[in-house]
Amino acid sequence: MLNIKSFTFNPFMENTYVLYDESKEAVIIDPGCYEKREKAMLFDFIKMEGLTPVKLLNTHCHIDHVLGNAFVKNTYDIPLWFHEDESQILKAVPAYAPNYGFPQYQESKADHYIREGEWINFGQSRLLSILVPGHSPGHLVFYHEPTLECIGGDTLFQGSIGRTDLPGGDHDTLLDAIKTKLFFLPDEVTVYPGHGPATQIGEEKTNNPFVGKYARF
């Protein structure tokens, strides 16, 4: 059974996820923890549940999703995985982090570049990596088929989509990727986004004003 624990961190209200199963092995996705208390919340949960983190994953590398990368890597001595097309996005973060109020941001580097369609294994579970660009060039989502659950990052939100006005973003690319990649998944799939509440593929297919059946654009 896959367990998903979510935390909401930093002023961007970013969702950080810890996924784990009966083996107690875990993956940490998009650690947005920056303040000491936020890091303690993540650390204490992992300790309380007796988890062993084995991989750190980024759906993409905008600042709000990577603030805790160095903390997680250094604390648990685990590798950082993301898509290669996000490497320049991550390298740019130190230059603007102070302007966003994060002067103590610590850099991190990839240990492995995830390929589209690559399986990410941990414990008795595995996640399928699906490339959904547009919000950022190498944005991945992570799909757990047995439980019909997907960690969606900043692609598809409840009633909305990811913004595309940041460097590397492209509106048409994101719309196409959602329709051809995410909407290919079963309607029953629950999407856990990078911000805000979870939603379902079927709900967004019908009602999302950007990409749904009644889209206005």
UniProtKB/TrEMBL annotation:
Keywords assigned: Hydrolase, Metal-binding, Zinc
Top-level taxon of origin: Bacteria
Cofactor section: Zn(2+)
Pfam hit, one: Lactamase_B
Listed SUPFAM superfamilies: Metallo-hydrolase/oxidoreductase (SSF56281)
PANTHER family membership: HYDROXYACYLGLUTATHIONE HYDROLASE GLOC (PTHR46233:SF3)
Name of the protein in question: MBL fold metallo-hydrolase
Lineage start: Bacteria, Pseudomonadati, Bacteroidota, Cytophagia, Cytophagales
